[in-house]
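Justification of computing resources. Each target in the renewal requires a structure prediction run like the one illustrated here; the chain below, 337 residues long, is used simply to show the kind of job we budget for.
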Amino acid sequence: MTAAQSAPELGVSTACQALGLSRATFYRHLTPQRPQAQISSPLPHHRALDQGERQAVLDLLHQERFVDKAPREVYATLLDEGEYLCSPSTMYRLLNQEGEVKERRNQLRHPPYQKPELLATGPNQVWSWDITKLLGPVKWTYFYLYVILDIFSRYAVGWMVAHRESAALAERLIRETYDKQGIVPGQLTIHADRGSSMKSKPVALLLADLGVTKTHSRPHVSNDNPFSESQFKTLKYRPDFPKRFGSLEDSRLFCQTFFEWYNTEHRHSSISLLTPETVHYGLADGVRAARQKVLQAAYVMHPERFVRKPPVALPLPEAVWINPPIKSKEGSLTEIH
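Resulting structure tokens:
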């Protein structure tokens, strides 16, 4: 029995419910379908060129004397010769329909830059380095602070302040820091942005000689070098950071005090509130164990103050990434460029 047959006896709602139909479907089938109107193609405008005239214009534009000229030049040349075929805009429209309107000059094409994806699971695996300006005593004078940072421990492994930004100075700092940290060939990756010193030939040759892999940020993407940028913000947002430095010695003295504090006293939020020195030199487990004893004693004394569970010292991150791969919905890793 159909819905239409049972509807007079049971009612539309009851019949549709029994047959598993919606009432909208029932009423739609009762209404006869209207025949679809035939869509006719629009008639050509009475002012438009006919097919023969269009082809004549294209043939003219394809002639050797006009093939390298703009339609406006062709239009003017034809007028000077006493001939009119169509307007310049019509010439452009016809050429565009044939796919013949485009930039013909050689244009600079930037190569596709690969997004750096760097992983550090311990100290002295990946370093990030950068240069920032410090304001000098008068306007338009600067001092340049070079900083090399270990991204796993956040330890500033090397720094210097100089009068200028120089590839030779950067090369010297990298070599001295490399030797001081006891790096061996094949152990280290150094990441930087695309500044002139970072991409200079002396630095590139030095890293190749030392067996160090170098990577660079994509142009105008500050997120590709986040650790150096964050460290510079910590420096410049210190309460005692001066607006200007009176001399090079003044800036060096301030940075010496700052990096001593940063490496040995600053409890960094991204490394479980440990100091960079503690993490860099493998002392984190001992400090965490001592913290856990303090927390356990506090829990034993006042367990009611810890509602959900006993307190646990913050764990140290097992891995630090620059641009970690994005996980897809299926759980596999995908790359985004």
